[in-house]
Amino acid sequence: MNEDSKKQTALNDTEPSRREAFVKIGVGSICVACSGAAVFGYEFLAPNVLYEPSPVVNAGKPDRYPLGSVTQDQQSGIYIVHGSEGIYAMSAVCTHLGCLTAWQPELGIVACPCHGSKFRRDGTKIEGPAPRPLVWLKASIDDDGDLLVDRSSPLDQKQYVRT
Amino acid sequence: MASSLDAHLENLRESRVWRSIFRSGSGATNLHRALSVQQNVFLHLSSVKIRKRSLAFRVTWFLGTLSLGGLLILVVTGIPLMLYYHPSVPQAYADMKDLRFVVSAGVFLRNLHRWAAHAMVLLVFAHMFKVFYRGAYRPPREFNWVVGVILLILTLLLSYTGYLLPWDQLAFWAITVGSNLLSSVPVLGAKIRFLMLGGNTVNANALLRFYVLHCVILPLMAAIFVAIHFWRIRKDGGIYAGGADSGKGKRS
């Protein structure tokens, strides 16, 4: 075996590995570019500013709500209930699939038009597919004496507004 | 009369302009017929030859062709509807009303679009049942069955995204319920819902996203997969005609 053919053999040995290295670099760069594009795409698709109504609703003076009344605000999707133990705010959004429930004064219950869930005035379920009772919302009195309801703050347990 | 018309058509087919577009040439020979299919960009997805018995009504009930017909009607009626429809709140509802009561032939186009949409969902399901119960999904056609499942999903997504566009109460609550169903997907559900709606509630962003999905993204995807679907019929040995001569192993 002379010098030239030895060189040739060495070249043949190294060439595939060099090609493999370039393939690895190429595939690696494509992977990095794809994951970058995925992050970029996610960031682009998730809006940074939302022009949605504020979660905090001003429900006016608490004395607007007489004892024993259930008042529904269609626009904001909340109930203000004045029970024997005090005033509380409750979401009108059904816990099943997000439809807007309605207070039925003649029956004294809350009913959902979409799939027929029914609730008592404290939110507990009477019947229907809803998995949880209606959500109680954090409510407070501001400095002007107005009742504020925060739709983004669900309560874990019953809590009445101190007036 | 008929013969002079034939002569004129023959002259047209032999003219230089015609021959520059359709190179296959005229004549009722098998070669010319085969070439006219093979050299046409739309027809070349299909085979140049087909077994006569696979064209019998009993074999397919023409359900795939009818589904394609539904899709074509939806494209042809959908594009003019876009000229009068603004995907914005609350203009979308007013535009839908205008299409029904103000725009000439608007009510015809809108109703045709809606009925064709319902019909296409029905036809696609019927097509799948027909293929399933005849066993036409079996090898070598198993990949085309998968393409068909993708096309079913695209059909349902097109139907779902189109449902929001009238921006009426039915549309709003249907999409509210549908997107809340989506949020029960484990781990990613709430995120997917947020990205799909472009917010936390069904609102202006959701309407615009559904519009773009309905009019651009999903139709493009459907067109691509329909092309693959038809091409695979040829590659898998033609329409499954049943019986011993199932076309297994015959690929052109």
Overview features:
A: alpha+beta; 6-stranded antiparallel beta sheet; 4-stranded antiparallel beta sheet; elongated; B: mainly alpha; Cytochrome Bc1 Complex, Chain C; 2 domains; 67% helix; globular; disordered C terminus
Mean pLDDT across all residues of chain B, rounded?
Answer: 91
What's the structural domain tally of chain B? 2
Secondary-structure element order of chain A, N to C:
HEEEEEEEEEE
Shape assignment of chain A: elongated
Helix content class of chain A: 25-40%
Q: Determine the oligomeric state from the structure.
A: heterodimer
Quick rundown:
Chain A is an alpha+beta fold and 163 residues long.
Q: How would you describe the overall organization of this protein?
A:
The complex is a heterodimer of chains A (163) and B (252). Chain A is α+β, with helices and mostly antiparallel strands and 163 residues long. Chain A contains one helix and ten strands. In chain A, a hairpin with a 4-residue loop joins strand 5 (102-104) and strand 6. Chain A is elongated. The longest helix of chain B has 32 residues, at 204-235. In chain B, 22% of the residues are buried. Chain B is 67% helix and 0% strand. Chain B has two domains: 4-40, no CATH class; 57-235, Cytochrome Bc1 Complex, Chain C (Up-down Bundle), CATH 1.20.810. Chain B has helices at 2-14, 16-21, 30-38, 57-60, 63-82, 91-101, 106-134, 142-164, 169-182, 189-197, 204-235. The interface between A and B is medium-sized, with 11 and 15 residues.
Q: How would you summarize the topology of this molecule?
A:
The complex is a heterodimer of chains A (163) and B (252).
Chain A: H1 3-45, E1 56-58, E2 70-73, E3 78-83, E4 86-91, E5 102-104, E6 109-111, E7 118-119, E8 125-127, E9 136-141, E10 147-154
Antiparallel strand pairs in A: 1-10, 2-3, 3-4, 4-9, 5-6, 6-7, 7-8, 9-10
Chain B: H1 2-14, H2 16-21, H3 30-38, H4 57-60, H5 63-82, H6 91-101, H7 106-134, H8 142-164, H9 169-182, H10 189-197, H11 204-235
Helix pairs in contact in B: 5-7, 6-7, 7-8, 8-11
